[in-house]
Queue: 3 jobs
Job 1
Amino acid sequence: MISVLMLTYNREALVVRAIESVLGQTFADFEYIIVDNGSTDRSGAIAEEYAKKDSRVRVLHREKNGTIGIARNMALDASKGDYVAFIDDDDWCEPDFLEFLYQLATENDAEVAICGAADKVFDEKLVMTPEEALIELMWRRRYNMAFPTKLFGRRLADALRFPEEGVYDDIALMYRLLALANRVAYHGLPKYTFYRHETNNSAWTTDHSRLNRETLDEYLHAYRERTEWLGGMFPNSAAAFRYFEWSFMISMVEKINRLKIPDCQGQLDGMVRELQKHSDEFMNGGFALDFEKGWMGQYVL
């Protein structure tokens, strides 16, 4: 019924916890596809040990480490479930993670179901149109861009191809999947834990001093593309989508200045010019938060 997809790369100290959290699920009708993304430690061998003990586990091996997108596409191509869920090899899920998401999807006839995580707990339910779900996504209060915590119906999974270049595939894809869903069901009880540590792919989002030029370029390009794509699909919310792009920019402007990040001066100058150009709409469009207006006054205007 469900394909659980995970890639692992040199996480021998953490991957056992992730694997056992999946194999301990109360919902038993799943396949668990693990892609060993060219590990040089025992991560792939550990996965194979579990495959010998549980027929639901399949391990695919890549000889060389590739991008997250390459490995996830490999897992997608091998998956057969009516639904697809994702887990990262350094995280873990609660025993009823799959059951919770499956019931949330089926009871609400939703192609996307979203649960809460340990750092985002809201005991509330929302059944949303794609447009409503996207606005909620952009505010990032209840759920974020990450693929874990979400269950996707097969129709969306078949349309899903991860970009095979770049590092941050979630920012390039998540909004497109929500936009294409018939409806999105959310219940914010925590069924998943993101383990934050220094080697996280997204470590810079909690330690902003790690921000660098390449990361910022990828985000800025993805957000520009997102604004244009969503504005064309949902013109009534185009002003909101423009705001969310500028909100990211002013956040980065503040961090680069406050933390004195030396690697991003060219991007800083470009973001300041863009914010100056659209300052009236940003400041008076009805979306900007008070602290963002303060940052605009301090760093831009």
Job 2
Amino acid sequence: MSDTAFDHLFKIVLVGDSGVGKSNLLSRFTRNTFSPDEKTTIGVEFATRIVPMSDGKAIKAQIWDTAGQERYRAITNAYYRGALGAMLVYDVTKAQTFENVPRWLRELKDHANRDIVLVLVGNKADLCEAKGRQVTEEQARQLAEEYELPWMETSAKDGMNVEDAFVKIVKDIYTKAFQGQNSTTGGRNMSVIAVDANKPDGKPGCCNN
């Protein structure tokens, strides 16, 4: 399959405090690169990657990396609209970034699709030994259970669970939007851009908002 052929386009946002590693998670997943000196995101940036589904369909994940600083909040909030999935990222070595997760959840509730697919991610697991862990696995599990979120820990530096985290979001969106659309409730409220892969311009074939 070519890099440009895909059946559906899913918009996904990375959300969390500044410095938790959202940009490096994005670059690890889309380009398989990591930069220890990567600069803080200003506003928003995005990258894409094709993710194959088990039924042969190809999903183009359009992943938006949003700035975590307060001064960019008005800009980033606008990019939540139309997002089908969000990765809520905290730094396992910084407790404050974990404590702010409920605030990010409220922002998504206020500005994003009500059926948005969420995954809670504790990044920088590779630094636990060197810097000391401030967020325990048990704390994370309890928060995930409270908000009914899937959870995993990742390392953008060594790639641990990065692929799994992004692919899970894409697969969960696909299942919710398409494989459940023949049921009485599944798929009806998802805002999905369906793209005809045979169109040379790659423009959406239909859009159900």
Job 3
Amino acid sequence: MLTSLVLVVVALTKFTEGAWLIVVLIPLLVLWFRSIHKHYAHVGEQLNLQGWVPDERRHNTVLVPIGGVHRAVVQAVEYAKTLSPDVRAVYVDVDPHVTEEIRKQWAQWGRGVPLVVLESPYRSLMEPLLEYVEQVDAERPHDFVTILLPEFVPARWWHHLLHNQRALLIKGALLFKRNTVVTSVPFHLNK
């Protein structure tokens, strides 16, 4: 009681000299901390295993977006085949001449994995890929779709600025999509 009385007296007598900041700030901080606590409690409820029955997912479609045919792509395809028998390489056609060369190289290096070529009349890479992921997800809405990104790891830290930017865009675009797993298969480059 005494502390509350002192608080009221100080707040009223020193209000114009800066106590207004404390009078406003402390309740705002308390409300903010309570909302954070409420968030953590809500997350804890959702993660709790009590009474939870896991889904029976039996199928995993693995998509490997490619921008060309090289060692990192072949390694990613080999890894994808260990995850599922349903593996598809996905290439977005922005230039028919390049696409024909990709088809020829894929026939030699594709390891029996089908190559899905997506048309892109406006030279957009992301939109056709995201639409295809939606289409694959719609085929089996309760199963997983895994997007396996072949990424090479440069020898120098600053080389990261020059490579793998498209992979970051794909990861960001699919982060909030349910039943979709996005992962990278690193291919380490020498110095």
